[in-house]
Amino acid sequence: MRRELQRRRITPVISRKGAPNIKGLGKLRYVVEQTFALLHQFKRLAVRWERRLELHDAFVSLACALICWRRLKRQVA
Asked: Which segments of 1-77 does DSSP mark as H helices, in order?
């Protein structure tokens, strides 16, 4: 994998927590961390208990819908 990246002259850059932003990578990291924090408010998603992937996907979709609904409700009020 690394050889393929080097062949294409692509430099892998991973932003570390607390490091200064390199080309805006810190912004993306914050959004992802915030999304995981919001989803982990739902205890059933923090630890995956369902054996079937469809059920877990359904709960993730439901959690995302609830998060969006709460944010929209807060903006209207």
From this structure: 2-7, 25-39, 43-46, 53-76
